[in-house]
Amino acid sequence: MKKRIFSVRTLLSGVLAILGFAGCEKVWNGECEYGSPSVDYRVIGEVTDEAGKPLSGIRVIVQDKSLYGKDGNYHTYNHEGDTVYTDAKGAFQSAKIQSGGIYQQRVVFDDVDGEANGGEFRSVDMSIKDLDSKQIKKGGDWYEGEYELSTKVQMKKK
Fold this sequence. Notes:
mainly beta; four-stranded antiparallel sheet
């Protein structure tokens, strides 16, 4: 009896394992995704002072964070984001970032050069949900597509 139960369990385990791997399909970039939604996004924009003058040398950090609270406590997991600097026209563009979704990400603008380039400015920290969103590429299956998120930020002097 024990031998028969063992063989049924072994058989069922093998069948479930095969079904699990069969459910893993190749999608959008050839990677195997197993129930993991993903999205690509890029953050673009321009930074000015209160008078509308472009600010160069402003550090722009795209923080890709996810919050999980299964146990009632929130834990922050940092994923790869991007750091760029504004050009002479105050414009910036991040690299394309792949994430599990556009949820808890933040964009931080810091004046790191002090008095140079127009004076010292206060940092600006904003949620990615506050940026304008435009879909660039349609998704399918678990891939939600590619988005361009844009903003115009006005920094205030300290």
